[in-house]
Amino acid sequence: MTERVHASRVAVVGAGVLGAATAAALTKEGAQVTLITDAKPSSGASGRSLSWLNSYGRRGEPYHQLRMLGLDRYRSLASRNDVGAWLRFDGGLTWAPSGQPDKHQADFDHMRQNGYDARWLSREEVAATIPGVDPAAIPDEGAIFNPSEGWVELPPLVDHLVDELVAAGGTVVTDAGPSTVVVSDGAVSGVRTASGDMYEADAAVLATGPAVPATLAELGVDIPDATPVSLLVRTPPVDAALRAVLNTPRVAIRPTPDGSLVMDAGWSEREVVTREDGTHQVSDTTISGLLKEGSRVLAGNPTLELASYGVGPKPIPGDGEPVVGEVPGVRGYHVAFTHSGATLALIVGELLARQIVTATPHPLLSSFRPDRFAA
Description:
This protein has about 375 residues and is α+β, with helices and mostly antiparallel strands. The chain folds into two domains: about 10-50 and about 155-225 and about 320-375, FAD/NAD(P)-binding domain; about 90-150 and about 225-315, D-Amino Acid Oxidase, Chain A, domain 2 (2-Layer Sandwich). The chain has helices at about 15-30, 60-80, 100-115, 125-130, 155-165, 210-215, 265-270, 285-295, 340-360, and strands at about 10-15, 30-35, 50-55, 85-90, 90-95, 120, 145, 150, 170-175, 180-185, 185-190, 200, 205, 230-235, 245, 250-255, 260-265, 275, 280, 310-315, 325, 335. An eight-stranded mixed β-sheet has the order 6-7-5-15-16-17-14-20. It has a six-stranded mixed β-sheet with strand order 9-2-1-13-22-21, with helices on one face. A hairpin with a 6-residue loop joins β21 (about 325) and β22. The two termini are about 40 Å apart. Mean pLDDT is about 95; it is low at about 1-5.
């Protein structure tokens, strides 16, 4: 039996996928949980994520292990719930610019060495095995197929986690505006909303995505930040057979539960203009260019139109690795800040919740503690 020694009341600030997963996991650990969000669940970065579930490429072993456990937790979720509409494991297909296979070859060799399922397919093999892809888009060198990868639509997942939280007796506070973790005598005493409402707590979790580094800087805690702007474009429902996630030199694209497609790309994000007031300007040529790149990689090259787009900061720590755990110098103040929140949310939420209620550092999170940046 796990000894509960700490944090019977926990406030979680931020209802993206990391905050919702942590809050739901805390209720399973026996905590009394209040989930507080500035607007609605999934209204931030989780609402504009490609949500590719993977551990593709070259990573340090602790990070790779955490991502693999993240994939495992999604399969466990699928085994117990009807999630087929918004969670799929139909693989991921990645290819390099024509004539430039060296980096992808190194990625492939690394993945094969650490046991990650990776197969190098020729253009003909892609045409025969991966529905919805235009073989003409595949370079002569071929493409890497990772059968164990998938995608998740995050808003339905967040709704599912919030429902679990409420069913277990947790409280959800929406439209709270910017909320502040209140620290008294070096320890968390609660969370205060923008309107002044106070929610007392023994511990708090800051899961506000790209806002985390600036918030912690006010406490004198340095979290290096590499957060860029993200742009996710969504089409109306389209007649496309695509099931896998595609990561190509000019576009990443996946299907969605309603038959539409979502896509992003590094080049299109770099074309977004951030105004002085923090809002973002996206040009029509950027949108049309991304839609054309999406069409080019799909079988039949369908004409893709714009239904909507989301734009805003995409949380990425400065060293690219997750930042998870207790903030140095403030008892009971925990943080969850990471890239690939979709892949990591369920496992990070589970391990962080266990760490909070038992006051015992979890060994799988030891590489990712916030104090690694301390001088």
